[in-house]
## 1
Amino acid sequence: MVLGCAKNHVDAEEMAVRLEQAGYTVSADPAAADLIIVHTCGFIEKARRESIRALMDVVSLKQDAQKQKEDEREDGTGSPKILVTGCLSQRYPGELLEGIPELDGLAGTQAPRDIVDLVRRILSGERVVEVGPPGRGAPGTCGGEISGAPGLRYRPQSRPWAYVRVAEGCRRRCTYCAIPSMRGPLVSRPLEHIMKEVEFLSAAGVREVNLIAQDLGDYGVDLCGKKLLPELLLRLSDVPGISWVRPLYVHPDGVSSQFARAMARSKAVPYVDMPIEHGSARVLKLMGRPGPDRIRQAVDTLKEQVPGIFIRTSVIVGFPGETRRDFEETMELLAECEFHRVAVFGYSLEEGTPAASLPDRVPPQTRVRRIREMQHLSTALSRQSSLRLEAKVIDVMLERPALQEEWWAGRGVHQAPEVDGKVFLRIGPASKAVPGDIRRGRVSSPGLLNLWAREVAD
Ligand code: SF4
């Protein structure tokens, strides 16, 4: 069971492959399992509650199984074991062990690397608690050495896209963020390992790779003191079979002319997810983030050098000390930069972060009111961006046949997986299509996130 972000999903794939390579059978059905792994998220309050809920569901499943076994055999053995891993257990091991005595094992963010040993010990009856320093070195490694990577990808489904994690952890210290305390310092994967993994994925039918890290723009700084994302984009464009490369989560300080040029000259789609978090210079300073001028410069660089660029972003509303004027400055900057999509988050007080001790907390009802206002703007910007595509001919990567005959569901370059909606494309009756095909469609009706289009000849 995996909660949280795309990085956690890549972790879960790695754990599944390592366990299968060690001879275990991996099942998606907790009721059929001898051991259930719950890979958690500890990012913000809302995500933590979701992880706890998932854990409690598994605990009641275990209790039901125990009761059933007791009825049958009077000794309660044979019920599933529970191992909790990931960010929540990295951050709150003591609280989890105390609050959920039914746990048979607890491990932190290094668990994907050590999963075989953890499972073997728990199944042999040991109650295992392993929480090391946050993070675990580069993904796919075993204490730095390579073990079976790049094949540590679990490909049960035939979806033509995949997330590829290029680094773990973060070297920045945004004052509201607890991620470095869970995921550790920046550790980049050697470029050659990423190349091998993408070749492996391409051979497995993947046509779009979505590059992920806490801060993609910083990729490589720990390896050789320079930002390697531009080089990575150009190198990935040489991998046969890969059509699209999508950079997700680039800090504004990671946007340079070199990066934008590499975007324009490679198989990178004209799309970037660049969180700005706020629009007020005063609040951005309190957050430890780049100011509005640096944000404008990053946006201008992308718009000038990457034709047709779509920029997704995210903002935090209700940061301590945020005044009405600060909030309005954020709205103004978003409208001025015409962001394609805006994800809106309410400030979540994270204990142990510098922002948690800042004065002048924004009252909850004010925060909720501002979130609603910001979501109105976000919707308007999304609609505006979709309307600009009306009657335009766009590339669509096909993902699966839609319910209606002759229609396929897919995505355009402006749509990242799982967050930006779909394109429903009508293709000719005789047209043979497979997932990963890229077809051209003229947009007939733009919805807020989804688009409808008809295939046009090349
Ligand atoms: S760059 Fe992202 S992950 Fe790193 S500290 Fe800032 S918000 Fe957290």
## 2
Amino acid sequence: MYKVRLWSVRHSRFMERLYNTANPGILLVLKGVTKIFGKRLDRPITAMEAGVKGFLFDCQMCGDCALSKTGMSCPMNCPKTLRNGPCGGVRANGMCEVKPDMNCVWVLAWDGASRMKNGDAIQNNEFAVDHREKGTSTWLKLARDEKTTDE
Ligand code: SF4
């Protein structure tokens, strides 16, 4: 939801703290669940991730989450799916060149990153999106120690 997405960026420091506090426990549970059930619960876990992150960040389930490195602003909402914005077309008022009614996702990202303790991580975002991962779960990749951007 757009309004909630903006709220999450404005409160990126709080989201960062929440993530750092909750993540170790959630990861431990997911590691246990994936060990016991293998891939049998992948679909509900992926749906849970899509639901929670969809509400908070308008997550597009790219399969390679970068939220902690983009100021809690999901870069997949950028019409150009840039991973190192903003583009040269961003408007002077911070709105998107392609969607003029939408705040530039990357202007939001740099703003959100400026509020975070580990916000400098945004400087290291020079990677392309692997669109083959779309629809897959970053949570499950982290639980299975598979390489992701958000490490
Ligand atoms: S203005 Fe921002 S959101 Fe729009 S295409 Fe450029 S980088 Fe993406």
## 3
Amino acid sequence: MLCYLPRLRIVQLQTINAIPVYLLICVVFFPLFSVEVAAEIDRTRSNEIVQLMEQEQFEGFQDFLIRLRSFSTIDDETTQVINNYLQDQAIPEDLKNTLYRLLGIYTRLAYGDKALGTLAQLVAIPTFAVAGLPQHENPNFHRFADVLGAIAIEFGLDFRNVDNRIYEINLRGTGDELVGIHAHGDVVPVNPDLWVLEDGTKLDPFKVTRIGNRLYGRGTEDDKNGIVASMYAMKVIKEENLALLRNIRLLVDTTEETSSLAIPYYFERNPTPDYNIALDGSYPVVIAEKGFGTVMAHFPVRKGSGEGAEIISVSGGLATNQIPAASVARVRSARPEELVSVLNEAGTLYTAGHGANFQIFASSDSNIVMLTVQGVSAHSSEPASGVNPVSRMLDFIHNLHGQAVFQSNHITDAAHYASENWGLDYLGNTLGIAYQNDFMGPLTAALTYIALDDEKMQLAVNLRLPVGRAPDELLAEISSRLESWSQTSKITATFKFSADEPMYRNPEGAWVNALLDIAAENLDIPRQFGSSAGATSIHDLPNGVQFGLAMPDEKYSGHNANEFKTIDQFMIDLQIVTEMFARIGGMPRL
Ligand SMILES: [Zn+2]
């Protein structure tokens, strides 16, 4: 018997070894397998509906559907879905995805502007780590929790602040299954001096500034947008009484950018969700995350000796996971003007000889010379997307130290270390530790964080480990190579090492295919699993994947100076997250 194929799609399940498995399901077996059917409304259609309805006034989802149905351009199937929904008649399983998509479109139109306001409200609270103050004792986080709690209650959602570690927001359904949605409220620190646009516009990192299609502000991309999209999705599903067959729990992390201790703290005291979806990475669905590692070098402060000027400070990233836009060294000099011209001349040669995609310039203020390396900031997991000023500053200092421009001290020691062991390449070639994985890409090693106090200078290298080498084995090799360097160079330094296992999953099941569908169809991007260099809160959780909210082929602005989210992307995220919650909540089986 010829099979009747009601818009059945060939479901392609890509396995990690990239051997596609094609499943052609015959109607006969329908009750045995859940078949996911593409919603009729693709990206083009969805944009058409948005344009149609943008000018319309409507109150609630039902009213939205009634008005939408009045347009002659609406196809029969969508009309059938609308009729069934409005007449409270059952919607055929294969048409439900169309309803969820309409709910997503409704949410962005009904609440998009309000959601932008909520994002600004959350960005305005500077939730970055303060040295020496535990995050759960930081008053800014207490304020953040209060604001989040008030919004949740206004939205009719259950809110629970778990010891100022994790904020829990619940959308209850029937059944026991629990789907965890992960986003984080903490942000990486800012250096306000670096928040200047190319046209000279100075930005306040904690005030959302709308310029054209961009929303500038710390946390607009990483990751307060994820919290906002989730809360409005929950609000609408609650308001419209959409049937949920399982519980959806938003877990807002407070230490995702720092210790990552809040999640384990929470799960020691609370149930672990069966499925864990992080809205803190890339679309469509990321199933692999590199392991996060750090090589922290300590150089004891020592008084300058020998000829030349003395470097008294040098700046780097404010966090291990941040490549800054610029690095600045301050140098005490008896002949500042002379040194400025030496540095500017040497700087011109150096930049010309190293790709010319960054700048070096020096100026003086009485006997202090400021040496600046202006690069391009980046998330430390993607060093290729920036031009690291820290590695260039240290390599430049090392080169000049060799020409007696600078006295020897702890800063030239660190420059020697950085130049000889890490260099400008961020793939570990200089130290001889490079390796890569076809799916996850290469090991990366980026010079980032610098801290200086009266006793020591700290310099961090942020490692990102793909599968292919055991972290302990890699760290042992790095340690022995740096030990022998320290002996050969006779430079006193101590090192601390840490590295997590990479995450590499092979998720199966209707739920992960639904995530792929929703992202691929709404964003018009390839329907395939991705891998990420960055790690998120779901790294060690069961059935953990990333689901956006950043576009895979665009530079990630998180951790950068001038971090931004485009308004278009924010709106489509609101639509997608609402559809995802509704679909994952309504599917008969995950
Ligand atoms: Zn993040």
## 4
Amino acid sequence: MSNGPIQRERDAWKPLEVSTSDRARVCFDVKGRGYCGRSSSKERMSVWSKVSCADCLAAARADEVEVA
Ligand SMILES: [Zn+2]
């Protein structure tokens, strides 16, 4: 069965998939939480070069934190 218009409509409004899963995500550690506000990630680092969480990096850029 091919996707009908309703399914296509749903797909269009579906939230974007997060590229990093909780297990793979490495957040920047801020007092036991991620910089992005998540506490679900398995690993947190206090070195930006090791951080893989896109939300942490985006938040850091927004805050003009030096991540390099
Ligand atoms: Zn994060």
